Amino acid sequence: MDEHTALAGGRYAISDAGEAGVLLALESTDSSKLACTKKFTFAPRGDGYRITCDVELVASDGDLSQLKVGLEMVLNLLAPDAPDRYFEIGEAKHPLRWSAAVQSSELKNGHLRVVDEWQGIAVTLGAPAGTAFWIAPIETVSDSEAGFERVYQGSQILIVWPEEFTKGRPWRGQMTLDVEPISPAHR
Hints:
Number of domains: 1
Number of strands: 13
């Protein structure tokens, strides 16, 4: 499936900005058949914080049926093979270098949790009505004294919503990212 280039790589203009967040709107192009706004809000939450991204898409042409909407997030907790940094799926722990397509139904309350015991934090991603989390490591190749080596850069997480777009009817999706300290007992 191809990406919608205007949404993925288009220019977004700041429509509104304040202390608690920012509203971005996709600058229209002749080839774009979708209008898009992204609202990011930032708020303290307990001892941590929450970032919320609300997305609204409106199709201006009726031929956009059966699209999958994806919102990408990249996390870098370093040390991809360290046992104290992992994706938590149910009772299982997977290293940061892990890749998978995880259905929301497999996750605790539909949330994906990434834990870094070394730093004492956990990142929890949620997406109401999102159906899957596609997870893949981002790696580059480096030429070192020992030769070529793979270097972990971070973990890409794509939250996916399958959708059918109707001309003029808005689609709305939301992603939340909570960062919070973890208790020493969790470590």
